[in-house]
Amino acid sequence: MTEHSRPSRRGVLFGGAVIGAGALATACTSNEEKDPAPVAQTGAGGGDNDKPGKAVTIGFSAPAADHGWIGAIAKNAQATAKQYSDVTFKPVEPTNDINQQISAVESLISAKVNVLVLLPNDGEQLNQVARKATDAGIPVVNLDRIFPDKLSYRTWIGGDNYGMGVAAGHYVGKKLKEKGVAKPVIVEIQGIATLPLTQDRSKGFADALKTYGFTVTAKQDAKFTVESGNQVASNLLQAHKKIDALWNHDDDQGVGVLAAIKQAGRKEFFMVGGAGSANAMREIKAGGLLEATVTYSPTMAGSAIKVARLLAQGRGMGDLVELQVPQSITLASETITKENVDRYLPLGFES
């Protein structure tokens, strides 16, 4: 999740020229006969991966859509699956209960789907059932929250959590340096503190700030919910009478964070968000406290469906030289500001 890169991550994965195409021909400067023109190499897909192939069934499981990012994950997965006549999309009931998700995944294994796209509520707790799927010969595309055992998945695809923190840290650090703030009060509102993705975000933020000689003054997790975001922000605002910068990990919980800030009437600091929601982008465009957000787009679910389809059909990525789909795909985190927000708005999700 944002758990919670576009323009366009899809383009990064599936568009553009062939990577590693044959070497350029060397110009002939003698009277010798010219060498034959080199033949460009293509991936196992032979070019266009979107051309119909073997009919496959893709199983899909994700947490319940209790906020915008997760809801957009399911919508992106379903919308991408519908683009292919050779894909049968088989989602199970989304749930935030670990045991229910395990049972749902087991039902997909029993149904003998060709490939499974799985965004676990918790990677560690769902690791065993993912391993059960791979042991049954069903490739698993691990989306976002990663399984600790690499034998539990064929390919992982997700955002760059550490990179999110780095991007946010550089935006904050650079702006504070330009303003000449010597000892800034920097506040950080995390998502779920126990998740590795949250820890990666915090580490990236701290590492980037360190390059400017800054550190985080206070941080607290807000569980990725609007309500918790509102409460945590209220607590931090009361605890710190002056703040210079605030980074909120998740734009969904950011709805509550912004509401708390406005209610408190605080205007002395600037804020950076995370994920790239449409409402956050509208706030950025309007000007005000929220100046930027760093992307972690749910369009990754659509890319996961594309990857799963290729795995089930035994194809590689047409734009790559290699014959197999990569083992991991990390999507870039981009910084959205007032200067470039119009380019990103079409990719935003509603909180």
Write a short abstract of this structure.
By secondary structure, the protein is of the alpha/beta class. The chain has helices at 9-14, 68-81, 98-110, 123-135, 161-179, 196-210, 226-239, 251-264, 278-286, 300-312, 341-344; strands at residues 56-61, 87-91, 115-118, 140-143, 155-159, 186-190, 218-221, 245-248, 270-275, 290-295, 328-331, 335-336. It is found in: Cell envelope.
Please, could you describe this protein's structure?
Pfam families: Peripla_BP_4. This is Substrate-binding domain-containing protein. Residues 58-315 form the Periplasmic binding protein domain. With 351 residues, the protein is α/β, with parallel strands linked by helices. It has a domain at 161-298 and 332-347: Response regulator (Rossmann fold). The protein has helices spanning 9-14, 68-81, 98-110, 123-135, 161-179, 196-210, 226-239, 251-264, 278-286, 300-312, 341-344, and strands at residues 56-61, 87-91, 115-118, 140-143, 155-159, 186-190, 218-221, 245-248, 270-275, 290-295, 328-331, 335-336. Strand 9, helix 9 (278-286) and strand 10 form a beta-alpha-beta unit. Helix 7 crosses helix 8. It is elongated, with a radius of gyration of 22 Å.
